[in-house]
Specification:
Length: 324
């Protein structure tokens, strides 16, 4: 077999990889094909890799045989999965490849740039890039996702109009349940922070369309936490957060998972459970680092510093603040 003779090997995932020298030889032979045959072959392989969600192989294929249209199509399919896995560096590679191919002005590429800005904590850039991606897109679904990123960016910069305008546009444009849930969630957060009475309406709408998934149930529970803080205090709110802890451990959305962890840590400070708050903040920081979400890391550091202040550990608190 090819493996026995050293032409291929099983990698740790038990998939077969070709020896680098043989791979280089085969790629060289492929380049000798007539252009129309090579283009057809690359498109067939790329579509198969997209269908199988083999994003790394897809990126390698298109790096060797660039095709502007396929690069954009593949990134559009890969982007949600790559972001959920925290693979920020891989998204950056896709963007660089698109720029080399001449597809740097496509809406998908602008959306990818906006997503990276958001995770880096650059709220204004995320909003600007997201709104630009939405304006460039002829696809309502992509435009809705772009408006969501813009709304999240506006939330970081504490721009209530920017949050609400983009969240409403996202909800109006999309038929996707996840997008509509997230749009309502962002609108609810902003209304709550502005102490706007419409927050209750958004909570009711979230609850009405929620499905029996961990993401939806945790989001509804957390939406109720904000009203609980106002009506029953931080202790009751923390109990509500912790009541969905078993579901929170099964979340796939890193943004929602970090929101849950942040609320848990923040409320622990509010009720004076400082040791636990510091530990939770350190855990939140690790998760933020793992998923490449820079602004979450900043929130975690600030919350850890607050916990240290409560413990009268001022040197440790200053140590946290020096990292910002």
């Amino acid at each position: 077999s090819a493996v026995r003779h050293g032409f291929a090997a099983h990698d740790p995932g038990r998939e077969v990889s070709i020896h680098p020298l043989l791979r280089g030889f085969l790629i060289g032979r492929l380049r000798e094909l007539p252009d129309d045959q090579l283009k057809t072959l690359v498109e067939t392989v790329t579509q198969e890799l997209i269908a199988a969600e083999h994003w790394d192989d897809c990126l390698k294929t298109l790096t060797h045989f660039p095709d502007a249209r396929l690069v954009v199509a593949a990134l559009a399919a890969a982007l949600p999965s790559l972001l959920d896995q925290g693979r920020v560096a891989t998204v950056e590679e896709w963007i660089e490849l698109a720029e080399r191919c001449g597809s740097e002005d496509e809406a998908t590429i602008w959306l990818a740039r906006a997503e990276l800005a958001l995770r880096d904590g650059r709220g204004q850039d995320a909003r600007t890039l997201g709104e630009h991606a939405a304006a460039k897109s002829s696809d309502a679904s992509l435009a809705a996702r772009s408006h969501l990123v813009a709304a999240r960016g506006a939330h970081i910069t504490e721009d209530p109009n920017g949050v609400l305008q983009n969240a409403r546009r996202a909800e109006a444009l999309s038929q996707d349940h996840k997008v509509r849930m997230l749009a309502l969630w962002l609108a609810m957060l902003q209304a709550y922070e502005q102490q706007d009475a419409s927050a209750e309406e958004f909570v009711e709408r979230l609850t009405a369309i929620a499905e029996p998934t961990p993401e939806d149930q945790v989001r509804v529970a957390l939406a109720g936490v904000y009203t609980t803080i106002e009506t029953a205090g931080a202790t009751a709110a923390l109990a509500r957060v912790q009541s969905c802890g078993a579901l929170a451990g099964r979340l796939r959305d890193p943004m929602l998972a970090t929101s849950y962890r942040y609320l848990d840590a923040f409320l622990a400070v509010q009720i004076g459970r400082y040791d636990r708050a510091r530990d939770l903040s350190d855990q939140l920081r690790e998760v933020g680092d793992a998923y490449g979400i820079g602004f979450v890391v900043s929130f975690a550091i600030l919350n850890a510093a607050r916990a240290c202040a409560g413990l009268r550990q001022l040197r440790e608190g200053n140590g946290y603040l020096s990292e910002l």
